[in-house]
Amino acid sequence: MTVGLFIPCYVDQFYPKVAIATLELLEKQGLQVVYPLNQTCCGQPMANSGFEHLTQGCNNLFIQNFKEVDYIVSPSGSCVLHIKDHLHAEVGKEEAAATHIRKKIYELTEFLTDVVKVENIIARFPHKVGMHQSCHGQRGLKLSQMTELVADPFSKPEKLLRMVEGLELIDLNRKDECCGFGGTFCVTEEAVSAKMGKDRVKDHLEHGAEYITGADMSCLMHLEGILRRQNSKVQVKHIAEILNSYA
Fold first, then answer.
1. What are the residue boundaries of the Cysteine-rich domain, all occurrences included (predicted)?
2. What is the C-alpha separation between 36 and 38, in angstroms, rounded?
3. What's the pLDDT tens digit per position in 196-238?
């Protein structure tokens, strides 16, 4: 099995340790991981802003970079969902490759849970941790159950976190509430976005979180900014960093 590692722009530029942790975590499962050096933005910011017709160059490059691998894995639910829903070829003969990619791209935790079927992770993180369920992952990729549904609860990220030695998952009042980031939403509606983020942070702080984790570094970046402005000692860590740690 060959896995293509897709690293989103903001992880590459601001949180490279998340990319490294993802790579190491996949390699620990005995997987052959390749990183196409020519990869760039998947086009999600343009699509979010109503300019999906300008993303074809991104689509073409993504297809060329990842069409030969068995699976594509990324530490970002929002970017994965964008590719799943919007990747199409400009040239008809490449559409088969685009279809293959749409079916074989996975967010990290769903890949570990559904494809690799991990039952044991050797990791240690002796801290109280709050899990932020990002909207793209929860409602788009079905990484966890929505609390408004009358259905059995589940959470793929939480299942993995419960394998980590010493980690204590805290309860939240509103465990699947949006943090307010929303991609370009946080730019066009910054006041609403900031208030939603403050509410999300408050829920974690009230329940004694030492760290806030999640499967989308974009949401965590938003929460991190609020925590810093509040001079809070609470830190954010992508789930890949926790699953790959042995503190």
1. 3-84, 129-223
2. 6
3. 999 999 999 999 999 999 999 999 999 999 999 999 999 999 9
The whole-number pLDDT of residue 4 equals 98
In the chain the domains, ranked by start, together with CATH numbers, are 2-115 (no CATH), 128-243 (3.40.50)
Whose tokens are 């403050």? That residue is: 198
* Residue 34 DSSP class: E
Report helix angle 95-104 to 77-86, nearest 10.
Answer: 140
Alpha carbon 96 to its chain centroid, in Å, reads 26
Residue with structure tokens 């017709």? 53
pTM score, two decimals?
0.94
Side-chain-side CA neighbours of 216 within 13 Å: the count stands at: 25
Mean pLDDT lowest among 48-57, 94-103, 139-148, 154-163? 48-57
Task: Determine the Cα–Cα distance for residues 108 and 74; give it in Å rounded to an integer.
Answer: 6
Q: Between vectors from CA 143 to CA 38 and to CA 107, what angle results, nearest 5°?
A: 10
* The pLDDT of residue 247 is above 70: no
Instruction: Give buried/exposed letters for 83-113 (b at 16+ CB in 10 A, else e).
Output: bbebbebeeeebeebbebbeebbbbbbbbbb
Amino acid present at 225: G
